[in-house]
């Protein structure tokens, strides 16, 4: 099996970041409105991440088709 640069990139240790902090927050202190706002903002971020992932998939497919020629 051939190892590619993308495989090596996927194996990098995950660094702690803002999402780790968000996951540890105590949600009991938030009001209902704060929780609704938080959910809306997180859903927007999920959509943004999905869009970036799709773009990477498209770019990878284009690169693979270019090198198959």
Structure description:
The structure is a single chain. The chain has a domain at 30-69. It has three helices and no strands. The chain has helices spanning 5-10, 18-24, 32-68. With 69 residues, the protein is mainly alpha-helical.
Unreliable parts: none
Q: Could you tell me how far the N terminus lies from the C terminus, measured between alpha carbons in angstroms?
A: 22 Å
Helix-and-strand structural type? mainly alpha
Number of distinct beta strands: 0
Q: Helix count, per DSSP?
A: 3
Q: Report the sheet with the most strands, covering strand number, pairing sense and barrel closure.
A: none
Q: Average pLDDT, to the nearest integer?
A: 85
Q: Bin the strand percentage.
A: under 5%
Radius of gyration: 18 Å
Shape: elongated
Helix content: over 70%
- The succession of helices and strands, N to C, reads HHH
Please give the structural blueprint.
Layout: H1 5-10, H2 18-24, H3 32-68
Brief description of this entry?
This protein has 69 residues and is mainly alpha-helical. The chain is built from three helices and no strands.
